[in-house]
Amino acid sequence: MHELLSSVQHLPPWLIYVVAALVVAGETAVIVGLVAPGEATLLLVGFLTYTGTLRLGPALLVMVLAAVAGDAVAFRAGRRYGPRLRASRWGARVGPHRWARADAMVGRMGGRGVFTARWVAFARTLVPRLAGAAGMPYRRFAPWNLAGVVTWVGGSVLVGNLAGESYDTVSRLLGQATGAVLALVAALVVVVLGGRWLGRNPDPVRALLAWAARLPPVRWLSARYGLLFFLLSLRLGPTWALLANLAAGVGLLFLVALVVAGALRAVVRHSGLALVDGAIASWFAARRTPDAVEVTQLAVTVLRGSALIMLVAVVAVVQAWRHRPWRADLLSVVGTIGAFVPLVVLAVVTELAAGGRVVQFSTQNAVVTASLCMLAWLLSREARWPVAVALWTTAVAGVVGIGGARLYLGLSTASGTVAAVLLGAGWTAVFMVAWATRDRAVAAGGPSMRRRGGLSGGHFAGR
Length: 463
Hints:
Elements: H1 2-9, H2 13-29, H3 39-51, H4 56-87, H5 89-94, H6 96-117, H7 123-133, H8 138-163, H9 167-200, H10 204-213, H11 216-270, H12 277-285, H13 290-302, H14 305-322, H15 330-335, H16 341-352, H17 363-380, H18 385-409, H19 414-453
């Protein structure tokens, strides 16, 4: 690597500008970003400004203009060939309803999605084309894209400049961080899709059993022993059958939580965040004072996960008592009277996952995050928006406060704190998305859907 840097430094500056600009523009213009993201090029440009081979001001200007030009070409290609793609055989297989949903999604994301995509490899290559194909006006696309380009290009070049001789290490870590961001985006998509599936199937065990019943081995067993299973279910009675179904649902939640915890630990481990755990711990240790430690220790002791779980249970029981009747499926239980159940499952899972060698989960951070989010969600469903904003602001402040307090006391690492907070927030988001999905289904279905659903989503939607 050092030999490559040395050889690049001896090239004429104008040639470096041209090649770097072509690479940055081509990342989106000709989709080379799907193979070779442009961060490495920008970091190299920043390093060359550190050595004096290039000047910082002109380098920033050239790279920004190159990125904007590449995005403009990609946007134009999407605008020009998007309708032709829809009319093609492949576009017909996609279906008009899916195209309509894609258009609605891009319209809903708007400029903020264009800005955010600039910081995610692969996404910044595809989003300009999607925006052009979806018919987004260029006057709306351009300002948000320019803001994303300026921050992304400027940040990457400045990091390369400040890294100096550590360019090789920073380049490797930034590549890992980009991969971690991609994985987190994928995890967010999984959370949304999982929540929507749960909202459409509020009794997931029965839904999975119905799916399994269509498999050939299960169909054979049902044909031979279906009468026996029916007689056993009659023998159990409706109460025990309900309890067994709910217990199976909780077991399913436990397995899902284990998978989510493992995935988040892997993401944080490979992001390179654990490498700065020691430096962050030393920074906090240098600022400890006896009085501050005493106050911080008191806050950590008071805001325990068990106390918050009990508070969630009380709030959930009060709300469920006020809004009867409620249906006895898994989603209704964990969204009303049993809102504490997912928190208990999460506490057990984080205890099992707390012994990692690189990323050590903090059970308190995960449970406090999930509990405060659950409380804010339960209380804000019936509240007006100023109260809802205040509730969620308080929840975020509590999460940040406990995370910072544990870092200050040396009870958690930075990587473990991030992993635990992501786990707690993602875990709650699944049920929020599920409830919102079913609430929309109940509202769209009218009175008949409400009668079948038992519990009207409007009770808790805060509408």
